[in-house]
Amino acid sequence: MPGRLKAEGLLLSAAIIWGGGFIAQKVGMDDIGPWAYTGARYGIALLAMLPLLWLPLPRRSSGSSKPRSTAALIIGGVLAGISIAVGGILQQVGIERTSAGNAGFITGLYVILVPLLGLFVGYVVRITVWSGALVAIFGLYL
After folding, report:
1. Which of 7, 62, 65, 137 is most buried by a 10 A CB count?
2. How far apart are CA 105 and CA 64, in angstroms?
């Protein structure tokens, strides 16, 4: 039982930190706009991640001894970074125009959107996923 209690405590801590992040974002934009805020945020992330470019690449698990292409990893990373940055900008603009609570709720709707998008690509979504998503949305509402 102590392990389960620890796990649930960690989940609660993660939820508090995630939710508190919206308040920090709202307050952080008191002096600067969403573009500058997001630029600073992702600039710091870039500086933190840049040293990882010099780490040796792991070998493929498929048994091939040939390392992955550095160019492919960089291109994939840049495309993922652009997608995340666009989402971040949209979120910051939304936070500027509404309360931190509403922004957290709207962002948390991905809990429902992900299974819905899965249906469109042919993924079978089990009833346990839907029930868990509904409970999560109710929790977000509270």
Report:
1. 137
2. 45
**What distance in Å separates the CA atoms of residue 62 and residue 53, rounded to the nearest whole number?**
23
Q: What is the pLDDT of residue 65?
A: 57
Enumerate residues 6+ apart whose C-beta is below 8 A from 38: 85, 88, 89, 92
The first and second tokens of residue 8, run together, are 């649930």
- Residues ≥6 apart with Cβ < 8 Å to 76: none
The pLDDT value given to residue 64: 59
Phi, psi at 20, each rounded to 5°: -65, -25
pLDDT tier for residue 21 given thresholds of 50, 70 and 90 = confident
Structure tokens given for 3 = 């392990």
Which amino acid type is present at position 100?
A
